[in-house]
Amino acid sequence: MAEPKSENRPLAGAVALVTGGSRGIGLAIARRLTKLGALVCICGRDAAHLEAAAAELKRDGAKILAVPADVSRASDIRNLVEKAQRELGPIEILINNAGTYRSGPIHQLAESDWDVVLDTNLKSVFLVSGAVIPYMIERKRGHIINISSLAGKNAFAGGGIYCASKWGLQGLTACMAEDLRAYGIRVAAVCPGTVATDFSPHTGRDTSKMLQADDVAHAVESLLTQAPQSFISEIDIRPTQKP
Q: Which positions are annotated as active-site residues?
């Protein structure tokens, strides 16, 4: 029998898929979702990190499925979605979090840098969302939250490829929201500034003043627990003090 929803566990029984869920922001989001009662599938390319993350989450009694997958590959995504829905149930929540970073002046970067960043940060959202959306349309409900960045709105030296991926993600998210709102599916972007994880270097910065991964997880919770008649399309997150 499914666990009933309650004030403390408003997502009880809901199935969530978190890409890039083995560490950093993705792991913080997965942790928050399990505390809210969701059944969570995490994926990532590093099997060892996935195993460690799943073990941590299961210690608190959460139901976790960890599936190694490269979300820039359509074949991996098909297997991921099929396995998640077979073992946990229909996916109601999709958190597109997988991301990578390359920095430097555009003329000093290689085509391979462009391909890696755009495939991971943007193409993966297109592919994973495309695999999950038909099931959400069938049930006339769902949440898709794309973890973007303030780099999707602001330019900075050396950020050409990364900013391009996130500006593209902003446009894709907005169009997805318009495509899907009539089906009861809410699509939103979360745009944090720099977060204190190992995702990018923080040399010379006070990480205690930076955003933390759990700040992003809190924003995700806010989107998933908003009233059914409302639609928050985007959340920007900045630290209270500049690090």
A: 162
The total number of structural domains in the chain stands at: 1
Is 243 part of a structural domain of the chain?
no
**Which residue range is the domain that position 110 belongs to?**
15-237
C-alpha to C-alpha distance for 116 and 170, rounded to whole angstroms: 18
pLDDT in tens, 46-72: 999 999 999 999 998 889 999 999 999
Integer Cα distance of 34 and 40 in angstroms: 7
> pLDDT tens-digit profile of 12-29?
999 999 999 999 999 999
Strand ranges (E), the chain: 15-19, 39-44, 64-68, 91-96, 142-147, 185-192, 234-237
Indicate which CATH number applies to the domain containing 58. 3.40.50.720
In a domain, 208, yes or no: yes
pTM score above 0.70: yes
